């Protein structure tokens, strides 16, 4: 799934191969389908409310009045880190669907799901690779990610959480100068990308 193509003293660059193809779908159709399948009574036009006008902090409207720390401890008492969250979902759902993606076949699109165990396995594989091959240090090393919205992004992110690496998310709209500047400022040791063309001139 991962292919290392460049290694320097500062940054390892890794390419997440396109093992899953994603396509766009009409927003209205998707929203209608989700509302039909998962009608939880939440107004999609008011999914969150602002609780801090200065910093513009927002919270889910279903729990806008709850004490957040007490709520988390009651709802997920076994979750202490971001790395625990995926396993908590695995247990609660009995290894149910975790990540959905669109698959195209014969001009038709269908929503496919990856189970929690599959996502955990792929995430653990990536985290292990980063730890053993690039010699990252838990709680210290930083991993930068430049990727479109796709399952592999989650695999890399969760793999970092499992092994205690710090995740730095970079927008796909950043130009090369901005990317280089942020990599230097954050001292990221690994850069994971979904498309080599994004940094082709750096690689050359």
Automatic annotation (TrEMBL):
<protein>
    <recommendedName>
        <fullName>long-chain-fatty-acid--CoA ligase</fullName>
        <ecNumber>6.2.1.3</ecNumber>
    </recommendedName>
</protein>
<dbReference type="GO" id="GO:0005783">
    <property type="term" value="C:endoplasmic reticulum"/>
</dbReference>
<feature type="domain" description="AMP-dependent synthetase/ligase">
    <location>
        <begin position="110"/>
        <end position="196"/>
    </location>
</feature>
<dbReference type="InterPro" id="IPR042099">
    <property type="entry name" value="ANL_N_sf"/>
</dbReference>
<keyword id="KW-0276">Fatty acid metabolism</keyword>
<keyword id="KW-0443">Lipid metabolism</keyword>
<dbReference type="GO" id="GO:0016020">
    <property type="term" value="C:membrane"/>
</dbReference>
<dbReference type="GO" id="GO:0004467">
    <property type="term" value="F:long-chain fatty acid-CoA ligase activity"/>
</dbReference>
<dbReference type="Pfam" id="PF00501">
    <property type="entry name" value="AMP-binding"/>
</dbReference>
<dbReference type="InterPro" id="IPR000873">
    <property type="entry name" value="AMP-dep_synth/lig_dom"/>
</dbReference>
<keyword id="KW-0436">Ligase</keyword>
